[in-house]
Amino acid sequence: MLETEARPASLASSETRDGIAVITIANPPVNALSFKTSAALLAEFEAADADPAIKAIVITGANGFFSGGADINDFLSVPEPGTKTVRDVVAALEKSNKTIVAAIDGPALGGGLETALACDYRIATSKSKVGLPEILLGIIPGAGGTQRIPRLLATKNPLNYGGIQMALQFMLQGKPKDAIPAKGMGILDEIVEGDVVARAVELAKEKAGTKLRISQYKILVPPPLVALAHGMVPPEDKGGYAAHKLIDAMEAASDLEYKFGIAREARLFDELVRSAPAQAAMHIFFAERELGKVPGISADVKPKEIASAAVLGAGTMGTGIAMVFASAGIPVKVIDVNAEAVERGKKQVADTYASQVKKGRMKPEKAQALTDAVTFVTDYNDIKDVDLVVEAVFESMAVKKEVFAKLDATVKKDAILASNTSTLDIAEIASATSRPDKVLGLHFFAPANIMQLLEVVRAKDTSDETVVTGMSLAKKLKKKGVLSGNAFGFIGNRMLFDYIREATFLLEEGATPKQVDDAIKNFGFPMGPFAMSDLSGIDVFYKISQEAPKQPYRSSEIAHRLYEAGRYGQKTMSGFFKYSEEDKRTPIEDPVANEIIAKERERIGVKPRTITDEEIINRCLFALVNQGAELLGTGVALRPGDEDIAWIFGYGFPWFEGGPMHWADTVGVKKIYDQILAWQKDLGPHWQPAPRLKEIAEKNGTFGFRPTIGATN
Ligand code: 3HC
Predict the structure, then answer these.
(1) How far apart are CA 483 and CA 643, in angstroms?
(2) CA of 138: how far to CAs of 152, 284, 658, in Å?
């Protein structure tokens, strides 16, 4: 290898500085260690390792990343024999007798960190992050991570098995750590300000000849800790499939020699990567990354900068939305003339941030700064210069049109005006302004500062620039921004209405709210449709049903009977369930509600029958899928993956099933379609298969996984 001469640019390249080989991974955008990139890195490494003129080796990454890990696309294909993977890279590093330094500038995740862990030293810039996020993909680290992280952390933090607990947490949460805490844990050896590669070359020269093989550290993972960990993660069939295997793999680091531990890890990894939860999680990973891609809008259309915002209405929702902006670093003014609402809003802000401090999640100074970033005003003139206003006032078209006209007259002409309505027509709201191109829906979910879904609603006159700004804002606010057409209920609630309607029909036919909710919870939702109705308010659903466009098919009137009985849900301590004074949130089966349901059943002349849990799940979820297909056919939703994201992050659909549309693919679209046709005969004409569902079923097709699968370096 020639001094300072760079090899031709490829997925990995090498140069020599002062007898030290510097190998750079370069697979934009995140240096994913695809099969080809792993092969290129391995070739560069083997060449340097075999070259007697090379004293030590530095591995680094281009593009502001060390590496985002193994290429997830590769997990969806079956590798050809002889294909090189991160495991081969890690095995070569382990075998080498040369000193190896990882020079990290940017994220080192998954297989990226595993490569760094197979080096002797890891140094990083302070903006770097390290993590083993595999668990979030339904898999475990598969290139030595489960063997090296416990060995490293337990050795660096021996007191009271602190390092073992750290390792468990690090891998089970999958959340990357910033460089400084990672150095505190012992994952990184040094934080470098400035040129990390130059420093790595210095260190490599200084340490040349030394080897620090983490794989050889001896540790003990105490059995009670293992049992405790198994007890703390969800059951295998409820999202814990990978977590239990992760704990098993980590236990091997204590019980077995490295060479056997790594073999066990590999076997567990290979089993997981083909599992249904992993396929679901990978679908979600890619669906999330598709969200911001809006077909038909040119990449030249850039988002407007939103440097300041206002929220109209100091209610719980408005104040929650304001906190979302403040937490994202956007100063925000809440406007409301009701002094009482303002006082409550101020308290909500202060209490929310204070509770973060109490839980140890935020420093008091940060909480104070965020509290100060939300100011309360009463005069429209005080918000005239903001870049964006989100209206969160009473859900009435007349009221919304009045405030939009007022906002239009006061707020600067190029500001964007958004409505947080959950059902009303954005185009009609926009018609009250002289700037319908700058009006859109930003539908936050309650509690706004916690729920991750944000529906961005495009009406007929909303400009491309406003849409792009809405989508980019969602990202800045750390929300999953799902673009929806301007249809009643948008995507999430529109699907919800059909789900609840079917759940209520099941009550008419003989099920109880508890039976339905238990079946749905057993499927994996955190709560069933009736506990959810009680939480949202039966009065709210009742009012929406009054304002909804006329439906072609009948709905059950059970909720009306509960409404008439003053049972609005949690707020009145009674709805489909009852609630106790001590615990106002946990639903308790209520004979009174069951009696109201029985009477309604009698009134409409239905004889109760026994309903199985399987029927409950299929009826509720096929209703979701059918409406999802309808929204795709009418263009309200762009992609099935968008609907999956909406339902996972807005309504608690279990991630390990991949969202309703992904789940439909696993069940079989044709099977769902045939069942809907059968129900149409047995249960009534409201079971109308959506044209898109029919189209896919007739081809025996699927809603589809990611279209770009396989397109990888
Ligand atoms: N494999 C394949 N593609 C990846 C990828 C990966 N590991 N990581 C990111 N990408 C792609 C994204 O799909 C996206 O592609 P697109 O532009 O076509 O949509 C592009 O890279 C940019 O990604 P982001 O939009 O997410 O960019 P950000 O800068 O916001 O975030 C990131 C970068 C922090 C690296 C983030 O993408 C991320 O968290 N990636 C996943 C990291 C991960 O889970 N790694 C573990 C992989 S599994 C593994 O390593 C197994 C091993 O143990 C054997």
Answers:
(1) 10
(2) 24, 11, 11
> What 8-state DSSP symbol labels residue 573?
T
Report, as ranges of residue numbers, the positions in the chain whose pLDDT lies below 70: 1-9, 705-713
- Distances 526 to 315, 522, 530, 655 between C-alpha atoms, Å: 26, 9, 12, 11
pLDDT for 705 equals 60
Gyration radius of the chain over CA positions = 28
CA atoms within 13 A on the CB side of 448: 27
Listed residue (263, 257, 57, 261) closest to 147, CA to CA: 261
590 touches 598 (CB < 8 A): no
Q: Is the peptide bond before 447 cis (omega within 30 degrees of 0)?
A: yes
Question: Nearest 5°: phi and psi at 366?
Answer: -65, -45
Instruction: Tell me the helices (H) and strands (E) count for the chain, helix number first.
Output: 28, 17
Cβ count within 10 A of residue 694: 17
- Quick check: 492 and 330 in contact, CB under 8 A? no
Cα dihedral: 404, 647, 650, 109 (round 10): -120
Total residue length of the chain: 713
CA-closest candidate to residue 306, choices 476, 456, 482, 479: 476
Of residues 15, 44, 94, 134, which has the active-site annotation?
134
The rounded Cα 342 to chain-centroid distance in angstroms is: 32
Could you tell me which of 202, 83, 237, 216 has the C-alpha nearest to residue 152? 216
Q: How far apart are CA 56 and CA 659, in angstroms?
A: 49
Q: What is the pLDDT of residue 9?
A: 52
Binning the chain into helix, strand and coil, the percentages to the nearest 5 are 50, 10, 35
Q: Are 105 and 61 in contact (CB under 8 A)?
A: yes
- Of all helices (H) and strands (E), which one includes residue 58? strand 56-61
| Residue entry with tokens 């185009």 | 427
Q: Which residue, among 465, 426, 431, 460, has the nearest Cα to 442 in the 3D structure?
A: 426
**Cβ–Cβ < 8 Å for 284, 655:** yes
Is ligand 1 within 6 A of the CB of residue 118? no
pLDDT value, residue 707: 41
Query: Peptide bond preceding 29: is omega within 30 degrees of 0, i.e. cis?
Result: yes
Tokens of 231: 């007890």
Ligand 1 near 111 CB (within 6 A) = yes
**Closest-CA residue to 41 (of 19, 21, 55, 56):** 21
Please tell me whether the overall predicted TM-score, pTM, comes out greater than 0.70 for this model.
Answer: yes
345-356 per-residue burial string, b: 16 or more CB within 10 A, e: under 16: bbebbeebbeeb
Ligand 1 atom closest to Cα of 285?
Answer: 13
95, amino acid identity: K
Is 114 noted as a catalytic residue in this protein?
Answer: yes
**pLDDT value, residue 713:** 38
Q: Is-contact 204 55, C-beta < 8 A?
A: yes
The amino acid sitting at 652 is G
- 18-67 pLDDT per residue, tens: 999 999 999 999 999 999 999 999 999 999 999 999 999 999 999 899 99
* 3-class secondary structure per residue, 501-532: HHHHHHHHHCCCHHHHHHHHHHHCCCCCHHHH
109 lines ligand 1 (CB under 6 A): yes
* Catalytic residue selected from 114, 391, 630, 657: 114
CA-86 nearest atom, ligand 1: 54
Sheet with strand 20-25: strands edge to edge:
12-17, 20-25, 56-61, 99-104, 121-125, 190-192
pLDDT of residue 284: 96
The answer to whether 533 and 500 are in contact (CB under 8 A) is yes
Tell the residue nearest (CA) to atom 25 of ligand 1.
289
Classify residue 581 by its DSSP letter.
S
For ligand 1, whether the C-beta of 176 sits within 6 Å is no
Structure tokens at 643: 């609907």
- Token reading at 170: 């690090």
Query: How far does the centroid of ligand 1 lie from the alpha carbon of residue 285, in Å?
Result: 8
